[in-house]
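Worked Example 4.2. Consider the chain below.
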Amino acid sequence: MNTSLRYVLYICIVLNVVPYVFSIKCWNCRSSNDPKCADPFDNSTVPMTDCKQEKGLSHLPGVRPSMCRKIRQKVNGEWRYFRDCAYLGEVGIQGDERFCLMRTENTP
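Applying the procedure from the previous section yields the following structure tokens:
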């Protein structure tokens, strides 16, 4: 095989592999539907989503998912967990939930 053809073949392979290498894949679950989504997390049967394939959000035109997120919230005394692709936010410190965004209810 001549050098030019080999070079073109390598370029084609790289162009086909790069999008998969740099895509973000996140677990996608809700503990209200799947108890394995809660902590401690059992990811053996939880599906992963390729965030590159996620539809854009109408209220955030042009914004694509850039990281994974885990939301933990207490609803009526019960902890609920959500895991999926995130469009906005800041990366926290792994294992330290003190640096995550926290919201509270408005109480009169």
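Residues 25-91 form one domain. Strands lie at 25-27, 29-30, 48-50, 67-75, 78-86. Compare this with Example 4.1 before moving on.
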